[in-house]
Each structure stands twice: as C-alpha cells, then as structure tokens.
Amino acid sequence: MKFALIGCGHVSPNHIQAALNNRLDIVAICDLVPEEYLKLSGRFGLDQVPRYTDYKTMLEKERPELVAIATESGKHAGQALDCIHAGCNVIIEKPIALSAEEADAVIRAGREMGVSVCVCHQNRFNKAVGYIRRAVEEGRFGRMLHASAAVRWNRGRDYYEQKKWRGTREMDGGCLMNQCIHDIDLLLWMMRDEVVEVTAYTDRLMHPYIEAEDFGMAMLKFKSGAYGLIEGSVNVYPANLEAGLCLFGEKGTVKAGGMSVNIIEEWRFADGKDDPERVKELYSEEMPNVYGYGHTPLYADMVEAIREGRKPCVDGEAGKKAVELILAIYRSAEEGRPVKLPLKETAAADQAGGLFNGRR
Fold first, then answer.
1. Range of the domain at 140
2. What is the rounded distance in angstroms from the CA atom of residue 245 to the CA atom of residue 303?
3. Which of 12, 193, 244, 262 would give a disulfide with 222, using CB separation of 3.0 to 4.6 Å?
4. pLDDT above 70 (res 345)
C-alpha cells in the first residue's frame, strides 16, 4: 500500500516507524520546512523517497493510497479534506479538527468518497487498555457508576516556544485539546455511553504567554445516570507524573496509570475470573515515551480496515466525540454554567478570555 506523510515534526518518527513495521510502501514525505523532512529521512534511511514542501503537489504526483497527517492541529481538517477528495484514506493525528463542524465535514467526505478515516488515538492499543476494554465488553463491571481520566503532565516555556502554534486557540487549543484528549477518548470508549451535560472550569495558571488553558477540570453526566471526571494539567512540578484512567462499576474497579495509561495498578472484580497480580504483570508495560507503542497496531488496524471495507477501531466519529466534549468543556468554562450535549456550532478558536473564568 502506497503511503505518504504530511508533517515531519515531533511525532512523525512514530508514524514512519509504524508504516515500516506494517511494510507500507513509503512513496513521499512532506513538510513546509525542508530541514524537518531531511532530518526525518536521514533518521530512517529514506533518502531515496521523494520529499515535498507542497502536499497538494505530492498528492497529485505520487497518488498515495494512505496518508498520515501530523501537522498543526488547526490544519488537520483542511488537509484531510484535500487528501480525501484526492481519493486517499487518512490517518489524522489527534485531534481530528478544532470544531465539530470541521470534524463532520471530514467524516462526511470520507463516506462520500468511499475512503477510511482514522484518528490517531494510539493509546487504545496499549496492552493495559485492551484488557480493560475486554472486561467492559464482557460486562464484568456491571452497571457503570463513574469514571475518571487524568493527565498530570508538565510543559514548560521551551515546549511552547519550539512551535509558535502551540497553545494558540486557532491552531492548538490548550492542555485538554492537546495533551488530555487521549485519555478523554479512552474515558468515552470505556463508558460506551452518551454525555448529556458538562460542568467545567479551565484556567491559565502557569503559562501567561499562551492563549489557551494549561489546566482544566470537568464533571460529566452520562445518559445512563453515570458520572465522569476529567482533570488535565501541564503544570505538575517538576515533570510528567501520570496519565491515568479509573473505572468504577457496581461489580468492578480498575485503575490504570503510568505515563500513558500503560500500567494496571488496581484490578478488582466480584467474579474472581482472574488473578489481580497476574493481570498487573501480564498487561502492564513500560513505555519509551508518552507516545507508547500504539502507532504500529493502529496502523495495522487501519490497513486491515481498508482491505476489508470496514471502519477502523478509531474512526472519524470517535475522533469527533472527543473534540465535541472538549468544546463543551470550553463553553461551560466560558459561560460559567452547565452545558448540554450535543453542541450547536462552536470551535476552539471561538473561546475568548472568559475561557479562563474571567481571569486574564
């Protein structure tokens, strides 16, 4: 399968490695900054692979079957639409878009063009996450009562100054849209329920030089009557602490932690079907970084989905759900009230100073 990459920045090595691991035919890489694609091609021995600064020219000349988009978040939707209309299947780095309307446009275009759309929430493929999901599908929790997702990380001034788009409302959003969105996706995936109301606070506690939030907390109410908690921060001293997920049901409790929900810390079920200590041993894994090992199996699932004509595990609709929830959090914080879902028109860039509950 002919593969091309748009965007050769920080996360791009994970995409190239995943493409290589899945034996894709890498036909092109593209970045506006030649130094970026030269560095990437040198690292992976891709000197013979064509390199472009204009992705539209790349699409026209190389005609890839699958394109990964790993550019600034605010460009994802527009670039995905161009790829889809060129007949390409797409893997879009999170988030799928920065507005629900753009996400809908990408989903609709994929359906109309008959191509697959996948959003890169690779933590779904962690060993720990997969085993927890199996317990959910088997009904081992019984009635789900509440769940929580927490990203307690650190991002300093250097991080934001490396790329000027980081922390902007137009191109990025804040810690919820950038860092916490993976855990938000997992929370929604595990609950298998519809969020009907959100109450939230966001703030900018330690990064006065960015536009978006560096801290956010939200309470969710699900259609079933269950509840959810979301905590996102990039202010944790002195470095990343954890990205965690907790599920609480009438017959089961699970806590997963580590840098990217990769360690099972608690495993308690009334049915006694498995040994908790053995589960922790078998389904926990150390990660080399916060990206983990999930890109390769995500790519494998996408390739299989294309060949079988089915939806990928993380399809466009899943990507939209996470974005829409974050936008609802932003609106609740902006307006100082609970917000009902589904949302009417909104986008991350629409959130003004009130995003931080009136604090400047």
1. 124-288+321-355
2. 28
3. 193
4. no
